[in-house]
Structure formats: structure tokens, C-alpha cells
# Entry
Amino acid sequence: MLIFEKGQPGRFATSQAPKASGKCDDIPAELMRKTPAAMPEVSELQTVRHFTNLSRKNFSIDTQFYPLGSCTMKYNPRGAHKAASLPGFLARHPLAPESHSQGYLACVYELQEILKDVTGMAGVSLCPMAGAQGEFAGVAMIRAYHEARQDHARSEIIVPEAAHGTNPATAVMCGYKVVEIPVRTDGDVDLEALQQAAGPQTAGIMMTNPSTCGVFERQIEDISRIVHEAGGLLYYDGANLNAILGKVRPGDMGFDVLHMNLHKTFATPHGGGGPGSGPVAVGERLLPYLPTPIVGRSDAENGSRYHWLDQDDLPDSIGRLSAFMGNAGIILRAYVYAILLGREGLHRVGEFSTLNANYMATLMQQAGFQLAYPERRATHEFIVTLNKQAKELGVTAMDFAKRLLDFGYHAPTTYFPLLVPECFLIEPTETESIDELEGFVEAMIAIQKEAESSAELVKGAPYSQPVKRLDDVKAARELDVAYQRS
Amino acid sequence: MPFIPHTDQDIQKMLDVIGVSSIDDLFDEIPKHLRAKSLDGVPEGRSEMEMMQLMSARAQQDAGALCFIGAGAYEHHIPAAVWDIATRGEFMTAYTPYQAEASQGTLQLIYEYQSMMCQLTAMDVSNASLYDGASGLAEAVLMAIRGNRKSKSRKILTAASLHPLYEKTVKSIVTNQDIQLETVVCGDDLRVSQDALAAYEGQDYAALVIPQPNFYGALEDVNALTDWAHAQGMLVIAVVNPTALALISPPGEWGAQGADIAVGEGQPLGLPLASGGPYFGFICCTSKLVRQMPGRIIGRTLDMDGREGFTLTLQAREQHIRRSKATSNICTNQGLAVTAATVYMTLLGFEGLGRVARACHVNAKKLAELLASIEGVRVLSDAAFFHEFVVELPEKADLVLKRMAQASVLGGIALSELSGQANPNLMLVCVTETKTDDDLAKYRDALETSLASKGDVSC
# Structure
């Protein structure tokens, strides 16, 4: 039942609104609202009960193992949330003077420094509000760099075919043409194809490493050489940074610019699909183009002072990406996560996320599941292909995914990357214990048995959720995206 | 190990099963010389207690001032239930609802959010939200360029009364696609000048951007502007404050046909100021433009047994399907912020939102009158305003504001610092329902004291 279908005309949470105040008759009548909006009319208790009950219809990290590949669904520390929710932080206006902002600015500055170190880059801007906006900022900086050098012939961005959909979409938003290059059967980029694609028209390449195939791109130094020799720059999509945090730094691999997903690698909550945060880090030659504002520090005898660096200080910046400074509250949570873990803890992230993925991959393989890249070492995630099950039993990756929900596990990422048929991209993260990893594999084994003995059972799943499989075709054809009061 | 549950026995068992002797062996595909050294720039780890001590001290440093700054972010009362609900782990730690059956909570909530935004703006369709108001306007501009069938122009006309930081944000996002913004100047009443507008008569632009209330707090003559733009074959993009819409005319009812796209900053609907984010941008449009809409949209449908349910729909617009041909590279929405806003709107209802809007307006008028009584101070906003107004001071606004800040009153912003406004003596002041009569009196005293004690301050 929708919230609009509950309550009575005239009802609302009266203690939440000011008492009826004076008139507003100075506003010209033609600018006033004439028809009331049909909003919900419920009490505070009805509100709390409705949304609490809705929340119970969700899977979440707090309630279930959520091994969604490429999304890094790790534990979101409550302490980070609590610290970012301190009244002094919540009440600070984004345009408050620097005299009333030193506490917040100190956190931002220190996170910039930490991110520089873990990525091996020369400068950081925390402005982008999500991974996709970080990608936009990164490619816009590449464009600004070429334009500043009067190198106007560069019109193409190279993207491996396994890349996230945001990569080609971003390149287009920055005014570039996209050239996709193939990935070999061992999961690495086809170097010959890259060699042919790279040239004076190449602005850069966008890639993740480990790639979306769940393997480390071993030829990264060759790729760096080829693209740089052609005059292009290397963009690192930080979607998979968790795999190598503390083990390899993108700056050392030859990347010129990257974005990080703080909602993945730095454990900030995913919030049901955002807010995220996608800071960018750059090497020396892209420093002038970082999006603003950034926080600077000046040291004096009576201590450090923090201040904003804006377009006046960075005249070549690609500019602002939001009205203020990105998702500030997410930045604070990521900062807290970083200082809780510290140097030693950040080193362990890559190690234990990789250990967990390799353990699960081995168990799955031993149980008879087909790994997409069995010859390769898994990174923080790995791919299983259920192509054989789909062909022989008629039970697809989608069916396995839905049946997993009945076993109390959120499904892994399905049908991505597109080049592996009937695939699961599985990412357990470092915060899961061996118990959950084994439980998930046992569920997969049980579903495999069901698929062999009673395929229809699996194909009809899920049975335990508030709804069964939904009619997506109807949803798109008979579009109903807003409640209409009849 | 913080947040890593492995015991020594676990690790040994896992290594044995994998068939390696150490965790380091799992990185054997990475060239040795690329392996990272120690992270010297990162401090040593802290316990939660030590972390909270540090963070509490820092939060305290920034706390305690009375805030009259608006300019796109507004202090409102936030009911306790809003964030108690929004931060339930089931909402806060879920992800994008790809597995619809296991995400009905988030999906139904967003459907309800979309419905409320359509009601508030009087538009047909809302998406599941964008990052913030300013980047939302950039997406609206891209939408208008794609969606205006009558115009092939890659130019957008915008009012000089648009928030300057919105204009900057839009420029950084759209200029790489060869889209240009041109600005219509304002008159002395701080609103779009009808005379200046006449100069654009008959020219080809994809859309006109109309802020309501505008950056200066003033109410534009939106009906005339909308009709004018439509007569020129332009689409109308409304940039609106959601609180104000409980009081003033919603974009869907502007002029004869209504605006085509409505965007704005959702922060006033239950989100704390919090240094500028996370907030969320809302975007609504006519049903004609729905396929040009960026980002997530939730639809209502039926399941295999005929039960009602909710799912992501029209995904063929999006990057994970269309890749380089998508309407935008946007991936997520601001789900948690929208969760809070939906609870906020539900608690207040239309009546409660209207009371908030009226209280803001009445309070702002009260302060404007108090300030006008100070010698040398002039309230410039003579047209009707919502909850912000412009004041001219007898000296530079930034100096006056610095001295007020020393008395713990953040009195507004100096217009010359944010916009191209040449007069350094102007400041923009905001008052919402959170301010009492005592607060207003304190503001007046602080301003008087500041004006009496001339000179620079170091801070």
C-alpha cells in the first residue's frame, strides 16, 4: 500500500511544522500557488511505521552477505557515520567563513594528503560527487591538457570492451569519440589492437586494473608506454581499487589521472544507490586542471590555517562540479575510515579482499563451477560462468541469482562484463568472515542440485521475497512512474 | 585487525585450500618492482574512541554561530524521525536496486518520492534524483538540447539572476559538448529585465533558464517569462526551491503551458547543511520529454502472480545498457538523501510545508524591516522576495560580515565574493523558520555593532 493511500484529509505531523504564521499578501496573487499538491496526509506514527516496514523489504550489508561484483559492498563502520553526524559538522553552512570552518577543512586537507599517498599521485580534488562524475572530471582534465598544448587533433578515447558502461558514456560527455579494443581470452588487453588504435588522434585510454574480468592486467607497463608514446594519457577507473589498496599504486603503474569511489574502497554507505563520492587524483602535468574547490594549508607560528583554493588560485581548473564542494559528509566518513585503519590497516585491505576472493573461487571451482579465467589468479573478485547450466539445464545466471535470494544471499553482479556469457561477478570484500564465504558456496551447490533435479523450481524463484519476478516489459510499456490520486 | 574478521587459523586454512604459502603469493601476477612501499603519508591507525575524540574537537571548532547564510543551502528544522528512518541499515547499507525482488523497500520509497516531486512541481514525471541542484541544472540543459525538436541550437539563454555557482557548474559540465550559455541581464529590481529580454526576440535558443525565487531571493515574473520563451520556440527550464513551492506557483502551472523541465536543490527537504552535501538534485519534466531524462526512474508494475511491485524502468536510456549512446554517464542517484526527503515530505504534508514556507517568508520580512531601520543600511529588494533579500551597507560587506562573525553571527554572504556583482557593499541575507525574534534582534545588534566598529579584522 502506498503512503498516499493511507491517512485522512487534513492530517499531518503537527509537532513538526511551525504554528500558522502571518500572511504573505505582499506576494502578487499571480505568483501564488493556486492548487494544493496532493501530498500524503498521515501522522508521525503512520509515517514511521510505513517507512520502517518498507525498510524491511530490502537486502542490505547490515542484514545479508552482498557479494555484488565491482561494487565493493564492505562493512560501513558505524563510527564513521556517527563522527560525520556530530552537530558541529551537520550545522556548518557550505559558505561559512574560514574562521568558522577550520575543523572541517582540517579533515578535508588530511584526506587529500592520504589519498595522494595511497594512489601515488601529486594532487587530489575531492569535488566529484560520484564515480561517474569523477570519470567526467578526469577526462575533462585530459582534454584541458591537450587543449592547453594546442594539440587539437586528439579526438578519441580508447576503452577496452570489458569496461564499465560509464567509461564510454563519460568520453562522449567530454566530446570524444569512443574506440573500443578487444580483450584476449586470458582477460588481458589485446596489445596489437591497442597498438593499431593508438595514434595522433588518441587523447587517452580509460581502464581499470584489476580489470572488470577480475584479473590484474599484466601488460600495464606496455599499455602505458604505447599510449604515452602516442601522446595520450592514461585514465584509471578506481572501481577496483580495493583489490590493490596498499599493494600497488596507480601512479606507479603509469596512470596520469584516476578517480576513487569512496563508497567502495573507503567504506562509506551505498545508501540504496548513492550518495557516493568520486575524488580525482592526478600526476604533475594535470595538477593545474583539478576541479575546484580544494583545501590548502598555510603554516604559521601559531599553528596551521586551512583555506579554500578556488578558480582564482587555479585559473586553469576545469571548474566546479557542484554548487558547493561535493558530498562533504561522505568525505568525512571516508576520512574517518582512513584514520581508523591507518597505514597498517589500509595495507591489509587489498590483501584480505584478495584472500577472500581467491578462497571462494577455489571452493567454487572444486564444487564444479566453471571459472571464466581458471588459469589466472583471482583479484578481489572473480567471474563464474553458468553457460553450461544455461545450455544443458535451461537454468540461467538470472535464475541462480533469484534463487540465491531465497537462501538469504544477495546475488552477485549478473551479466557483467558483457563478454562472458551467463556470468556472475563475485566480490566478497575483506570484511566478510570465512563462515559467510562457505555459506554462499554451499548455497550455490544446493541450487546446482535443484537445477539438475527440478529446474522449474529454480526458474520460478524467488519465493521468499515480498514479490516474485516483475514484469519489466509492462513497466516500460505502460509507464506508471507517479501516483495519481483518483 | 579493524573490520577484518580473520583469525590465524582462518588464514592458514584458506591459504591451504588455495594452495599458496602466503597472502603475498596471491599477488604474483603483479610485477615485483611495482609493489607499493609503506604508506608514509598515512597516520597510524586509531581506535574508535581516539577517533571520536579528534572528530568531536574538530566539530566543536566549527559550531555555535547563528547562521543567516542561504545562497542555495538552507537551515530548516529536521524532524527527529527523518534521519532515524533514513539511517536504518536496511536503507543506508543497500545498493542500487538491481535485484528488484530484494529491494522493494527502496524501490517503493523512490516511487513515492517521484510522486511527491511531481505533485510539488505540478510536472508529469520525476526521476530518482541527481547529485545536486547545480549539476541537475547541467543535466536539464543537456536534456533541453536533445529534447527541443523545434530548435537545432546548441545555445541556452539564462537569467543573470541565476545562482552564480550553478552557472559555473553548468559551464564546466556542458562546454565540452560545444554548448554555450548566454545571460540576460537583470534590472535594478534584481530580476530579469524585460527590456534586455526583448533583444533576444526571434533568436534561436534551445531553452530559457528561469530561477524562482532567483539567486537574490526575488520572485521573477515567471508567467510572462514562460510565455515569452514558448513563443520563441524555446523550452523552459525552471530552477526552483522546493520549500517555496508550497507557497508560490509550481513550474507546471507557469504561463499558459507550464515549464518543460523543473530542477532544483532538494536539500531544504530534511537535509542538514553539512558543508554542502550530500544533498540531492531533483529533476521533473513533461511526459513528452521522459525519454530524454537522465538517471534512474522507478516504475510500478506487476509480478508473476499479479501482485503490485516496483522496478527500475526505461533503462534503455542508461549507461550500463547504452554505453556511449546513453542520455548521461550518471550511474546512481542520491538514494539516502531522497529517503530522508521522502520521510520529511510525508511528515509535513502539504499543510506543514506551507507553514514552513510562510514562516520563512514572514521571518525574512521581519528582519528586512529591522535592518532598514538602521542608518545607512538599505534593503534593495523592492520586488517581492521569498526568504532571502539583498542589503546595501555603508561599507564593504565582507568587512562588516567578518566583524559580525567574531560575534558569532554569520550574517550572510558578500555578493561580490560569489557573483560578478561589482558593488562590494551588497550582501545577501537569508532567514528561515528556525530563527526566533530574539535571533533577529541579535542580528540587528551585531550588524549595528559591526558598522560602529570600523576597520579590518584578522581571522
Summary: The mean pLDDT of chain A is 96. Chain A has 16 helices and 13 strands. The longest strand of chain A covers residues 294-300.
